[in-house]
Amino acid sequence: MKAEQLKGHLDALLLAALETGPRHGYAVMEALRESTGGQVDLPTGTIYPALHRLEAAGLIAGSWSVVGGRRRRCYVLTEAGTKALSGRRADWRDFAAVITAALEGTPWPSTA
Amino acid sequence: MKAEQLKGHLDALLLAALETGPRHGYAVMEALRESTGGQVDLPTGTIYPALHRLEAAGLIAGSWSVVGGRRRRCYVLTEAGTKALSGRRADWRDFAAVITAALEGTPWPSTA
DNA sequence: GTTCATATGTAGTGATCCTACTTATTGGGT
DNA sequence: ACCCAATAAGTAGGATCACTACATATGAAC
Fold first, then answer.
1. A54 HSE (CA, 13 A, CB side)
2. A89 and B103 in contact by Cβ < 8 A?
3. Which of chain A's residues have a Cβ under 8 Å away from the Cβ of B95?
4. Could you give the C-alpha distances from B6 to A31, A95, B71, in angstroms and in order?
5. Distance separating alpha carbons of residues A98 and B96, to the nearest angstrom
6. What pTM, to 2 d.p., does this model score?
7. pLDDT in tens for each of the 112 residues of chain A?
8. Cβ of A9 under 8 Å from any chain B Cβ?
9. Strands (DSSP E) found in A1-112
């Protein structure tokens, strides 16, 4: 999984990882690694700045807590984040359909 | 179609556009625009440097010609380019499958 | 003769993800 | 006791890539 390929799609993955419930950064990292069979294995230098961006954009809301002596910043999808996620999903479907069509010459399997 | 989404996937599109036969840059641009229903509409500042990169990488070979008083640089897929294209296609399928699975939670429609 | 489509190109910008490093706590191995 | 791995968060700087804006030139239409 090359680095450049992910560009522009990471936010959608992070939002999706938070859709099932609140998670802290490290947990998001692991959730993503497991849900993709290890193919999306983000370094901390990618995930934390990305979460900060999403928080600054108002798509997720973070709050500090301490569990087992370790500080955690737990993130939840905001209402704007939920909307953004469905937008990103639609964007992805469109994007994937276009690229697949251009590459394969065959139409995308209908999901409608 | 947001700009950042395309990052890392452009080369595959360009190689695919050249698969059906030799084309010059402007023609590649139009072919891509038409094959994607206008959704991939690359500015010249994107396409020409990208073609230069591919040529420098040995994936395409360019040659000058003059048609109707206008100079053209016509590109052909090299052998390495053909191999690269099938690699890029495989990469895309893997990538798309992973992202779709992570976003939708459902497996990719089997193409096998 | 001016404007549009054709045709190619460069310089600089901005966004994004990664590498490498730092800090801190808990718990297991020896 | 000591060290190291896993957990947990973060920053600074670098590399890549596509885009904006601009420059150049010809042919065709009006």
1. 33
2. yes
3. 1, 5
4. 25, 9, 29
5. 12
6. 0.91
7. 888 999 999 999 999 999 999 999 999 999 999 999 999 999 999 999 999 999 999 999 999 999 999 999 999 999 999 999 999 999 999 999 999 999 986 544 444 4
8. yes
9. 23-24, 60-67, 70-77
